[in-house]
Amino acid sequence: MEPAGPGRVERRLAAILAADIAGYSRLIEANEEGTLSRLKALRAKEIDPKITAHHGRIVKTTGDGLLVEFASVVDALRCAAETQLAMANSNARLCGCQRLNDPSRPRVLRIFALSCATRER
């Protein structure tokens, strides 16, 4: 039993999703303005709404990378799958030079990690 009071640390389980855009560095080198514009539009239209719909919270962004916290592994997986599909569908409507992906890889969004962790409050 943990002691109550100031020495007590509250913990909770969280599903952590870390993702980035496949081939992003190559895309930035080829067309920085277009790539940044496309990523901004995708975040606003596809990615961020799906994170919100699945009760996620963006913890950190780094260029093309996202670190997102979910209370449920199921929500995290559903969000990842739906976002991946939405981005692939979005890319399919564009010519090759406008697509946000590496042509040698079928997926657009790389999911690096999906795990449970404790987080201190």
Strand arrangement, major sheet: 2-3-1-4
Question: So how many helices?
Answer: 3
CATH topology type: Alpha-Beta Plaits
- Sheet with the most strands? 4 strands, antiparallel
Intertermini distance: 19 Å
Gross CATH architecture? 2-Layer Sandwich
Q: What's the CATH superfamily, by name?
A: Nucleotide cyclase, GGDEF domain
Order of helix and strand elements from N to C terminus:
EHHEEHE
User: Share of helix among residues?
Assistant: 40-55%
Form type: elongated
CATH level-1 class = Alpha Beta
Description:
The chain has 121 residues and is an alpha+beta fold. It has a single domain, classed as Nucleotide cyclase, GGDEF domain (Alpha-Beta Plaits), CATH 3.30.70. Strands 2-3-1-4 form a four-stranded antiparallel beta sheet, covered by helices on one side. A hairpin with a 2-residue loop joins β2 and β3. α1 runs antiparallel to α2 and α2 runs antiparallel to α3. The model has no long low-confidence stretch (mean pLDDT 79).
